[in-house]
UniProtKB/TrEMBL annotation:
The lineage of its organism: Bacteria, Bacillati, Actinomycetota, Actinomycetes, Kitasatosporales. This is ATP-binding protein. Residues 70-97 are annotated as: Disordered. Keywords: ATP-binding, Nucleotide-binding. GO terms for molecular function: ATP binding. It comes from Streptomyces virginiae.
């Protein structure tokens, strides 16, 4: 039986919100006959997914992709990628966020 997967193209001003919404649905469901993630797993994964998606959308000029995969051992793989060919570079944090 194939394991559940989410593939979401992240583009435009609502991209981070769409990623959060898709992640909430994915983590809260027991799709394809698999067990749903535990509340602790959801509460741990959602902020991580939110940060990864928000940063990818904010710091690239092209589109981004979010993929969530449920692993055979009921774990979670989170992949966020962007279309930029430039390597990431360190930035000085701003005090305003």
């Amino acid at each position: 039986m194939p394991l559940p997967i989410v593939h979401l193209e992240l583009n435009g001003p609502g991209a981070a919100a769409a990623a959060r919404s898709a992640a909430r649905r994915f983590l809260g469901s027991g799709d394809a006959g698999t067990r749903a993630f535990t509340p602790v797993a959801r509460d741990t994964a959602l902020p991580v997914i939110n940060e990864l998606a928000t940063h990818a959308v904010r710091h690239t000029s092209g589109g981004c992709v979010l993929e969530l995969h449920k692993t055979p051992d009921d774990g979670l793989d989170v992949d966020v990628s962007d279309t930029s060919s430039a390597d990431p570079r360190p930035r000085t944090p701003r005090s305003a966020g």
